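Archive maintenance. Older records in this collection stored only the sequence; we are now back-filling the structure field for every entry so that each record is complete. The fields below show one back-filled record exactly as it appears after the update. Entries are processed alphabetically, and Protease HtpX homolog is next in the queue.

ARCHIVE ENTRY
Title: Protease HtpX homolog
Organism field: Sphingobium yanoikuyae
Length field: 314
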Amino acid sequence: MLLSALTALFMALGYTLGGSGGAVIALLVAAGMNLFTFWNADKIVLSMHNAREVDAQSAPEFHGLVQALSQRAGLPMPRVYVIDQDAPNAFATGRNPENAAVAATTGLLNMLTRDEVAGVMAHELGHVKNRDTLIMTMVATIAGAISMLANFGLFFRGGNEENGHSNMIATLLAVIVAPFAAMIVQMAISRTREYGADQAGAEISGNPRALASALAKISGRAELIPNPVAERNPAAAQLYIVPVHVSELFSTHPATEKRIAALEEIAQDMGQMDGPPPMTMPAQTSMRASALSPVVPPVAAPKPRRSALDPHGR
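Back-filled structure field:
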């Protein structure tokens, strides 16, 4: 429905500006730009964040966690990246599950317990499973076409003489109303995708309260700790599991409190009134040590860490 609304908005704007050819040119250019982005989005995003790929040797705990979650989700193993950044956050990218990548910052890995990291990465795999990168690319294509068409409206006639609209109305619609409306619809689509990824992540990890606990921890810190990538490229904000430095009105994410409440309902629907047991994963070593340090010789198995949520979900 929201994609149809964007398409209808584009058609209405094209009709308002008339058949001068600007609409066709704008659509072709926007489609070409977004097609290039679609095929190269993962490379662009990962390079933007200076992400470094890790494997079972360089980050056995983190890599093994993602591998186990991928198996539970029935997904191909994505490439795994770590970003050397204090701001706690994570994202997924790639045009489809076969070409996906997931990334987490060192700030997130150092802050959260293992179960909470599992909840966050399950959320990102939920984006992959739901093919959100494909959906958001379609949205970006239409929204980009609307924005470019609005700019073209400044250089073309600004109105269709045949339909009798004045230049002033056409220009106002092109420059202000249409791009703003497209932004609102785009944010609405992005917010629905976050709820969908929370739902999928809860099902993949089997521990919705761990994801809720992680969201509560990182949401406040993500707004306080500077994120240089998001400051240079505000569009990157929609990638992250929690928003950065934006008001709720213009955020691409739902309010964290609403997401936590929805996760609590999911936990109750799953019959986890007192909170589920932690995920059963191999090796309960420190996420910080294994994700950020080189491999060390094997040692005796350490005592399992307590989750931030005790067995009673408190």
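Update note: Confidence is low (pLDDT under 50) at residues 158-165, 246-250, 276-286, 289-314. The chain has one domain: 1-272.
Entry marked complete.
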